[in-house]
Amino acid sequence: MQRTPRVSIFTTPHDVARTLARRVAAALRENPRMVLGLPTGRTPLLFYEELVRLHADQDVDFSQATTFNLDEFVGLTAGHAGSYRTFMRRFLFEHVNIDPARTHFLDGAAADLADECERYEDSIAAAGGIDLQILGIGTNGHIGFNEPGPELDARTHKVTLRPETRSSNAALFGGDPASVPTHALSMGMGTILHARTAVLLATGETKAKCVERVVRGPITTTLPASLLQLHPDAELMLDEAAAQELDAPS
Ligand code: F6R
Hints:
250 residues; alpha/beta; Rossmann fold; 7-stranded parallel β-sheet; 17% strand; binds fructose -6-phosphate
């Protein structure tokens, strides 16, 4: 039996981005109504840049695609400069022909956050589920904002962000970790694992130790990404720097 997640190693972060963007373009040609789950953060920036390029050069058509972003900060209105909605607009949605009505976000400013999480789960179900969930990984092993802990929520929920997560998001808030919201809403691990296909992108040596544990370590809630070992169609797309610990003998 093939081990999951599969591991694909590319020379540079650009190679990772190009390969995934080409794959998404091909999948969109095959199924224009594809449902994509999308991450934010530094890692997917090159991938979004490639998608924008493929749209411009090869007419890749996003008009019927649907997207669901993984997470959003609590307390930020949609137009806030630090919101993930703003991030997605800036790096992808403004540059391709996606229908804004088909792009879905958690509303971190909703009056009732529990209702908002339920609404999101319902919208994913109504869209027929997620075909391809793209993920990044935190240096602490989180995916989405599912932070390491003694237990994990299965479904979309409110999370308390760990200090290291707030620090790594400081750039969106003028460089000050104290300005990063303390809480976020995130798809749960069950939501993520129900996607038909999951691809985790990891580039750079800061991710190497975590990646090694995701591939070789036990499944544990203290490393949420390790749960990808339970997914029948999960893949890690790594550059050489992120894969460097995999070369070491176990
Ligand atoms: C953000 C998200 C996070 C990031 C992770 C890695 O939507 O889902 O899990 O993917 O924090 O962030 P970068 O890519 O900035 O290292």
